[in-house]
Amino acid sequence: MTPDEYVEAVLELVDRIPPGRVMSYGAVADALAERSGRASARLVGSIMARHGGGVPWHRVVNAAGGMPPRIAAQARARWLAESTPVRHDRVDMRAASWWPGEGM
């Protein structure tokens, strides 16, 4: 998979995350690892920062369920609008985590 194809694969996967559910950067990387040969949460984060504006970016969070401070308030508003389980200004990862192939 070329770097451009990987960017597309990340964005396509993020676009499939259902409202009210999330994936961590690492989970996105893991979901694509076998197909892509890559497994870097940091790379997924970079892709989301550069190219994620057209997909539901707020559905990809860090492993603790948070967002970078500069976009945290906007993400929180989107989580609440989608009824995403939130605890202490972070997504409740136990309740909201999603994996490709799970029911929507």
TrEMBL record:
GO terms for molecular function: catalytic activity; DNA binding. SUPFAM superfamilies: Methylated DNA-protein cysteine methyltransferase, C-terminal domain. The keyword DNA-binding applies. InterPro entries: ATL_DNA_repair (IPR052520), MethylDNA_cys_MeTrfase_DNA-bd (IPR014048), MethylDNA_cys_MeTrfase_DNAb (IPR036217), WH-like_DNA-bd_sf (IPR036388). Residues 8-81 form the Methylated-DNA-[protein]-cysteine S-methyltransferase DNA binding domain. The keyword DNA damage applies. This is Alkylated DNA nucleotide flippase Atl1, participates in nucleotide excision repair, Ada-like DNA-binding domain. It comes from Micromonospora phaseoli. It comes from the Bacteria. Keywords: DNA damage, DNA-binding. One of its GO terms (biological process) is DNA repair.
